[in-house]
Amino acid sequence: MTNGRKGILIRIGIDLYKALVRPHLEYAVPVWASITDKQVDKLQSVQVQCLKTVVGAKAHSSSAVEVITGILPFHFCRRELCCREYVRIITQDNSQELKQLLHSTVRAGLRFCPLECIGIVSRQLDRAIAGCQLIKPECLIPENCMVTNSLKLTILPSSTL
Prior knowledge:
Blueprint: H1 10-26, H2 29-32, H3 37-55, H4 62-69, H5 74-90, H6 97-104, H7 114-121, H8 123-128, E1 145-147, E2 153-155
Antiparallel strand pairs: 1-2
Helix pairs in contact: 1-3, 3-4, 5-7
C-alpha cells in the first residue's frame, strides 16, 4: 500500500487501518491521555496520512478524508477512549485499587497523573450518568458448557453434569 491503493478496495483498506494501525495509536490511553494538543495533532497527522493512502486521495482535506472513511478525528477518539476507560474503572468492585485511586488521586502542581486526566476528560459523561447505577456485564456461560484454559468452549454431554 505504499504506492496508493492499487488493487485494494477502499472498504478493505479502511478495515485494515482499523485492525492494524488504529490499535497502535489507541494503545495505553490512560498513560498518554494527557498529551498536549500539539502531540494530538501529530497523531491526527499520522491518521490522515494513512487514510489518504487508503482512499487514494492526495489533495483532499483531512476533514473530507475522515468523512469519506467514517473515522473520527483523533481528539474525539481520545475523549471516547477516556470515557470508555472511565466507565470500565467505575464499574469495578469498590475493593479494586484502581477505582479507589480514581476518586482519591489529585494532581500535585504540574506532575502528570493519568487517572486525574481520565476523570477530567470524562466529566461530561460523569454528569450525564449521575444517579444511574452502572452494572458490569457478566459473561453467562450455559450450564452444559465448560471453558478450558485455551479459551475454547466445550459443550459437555448432559450425563456429565
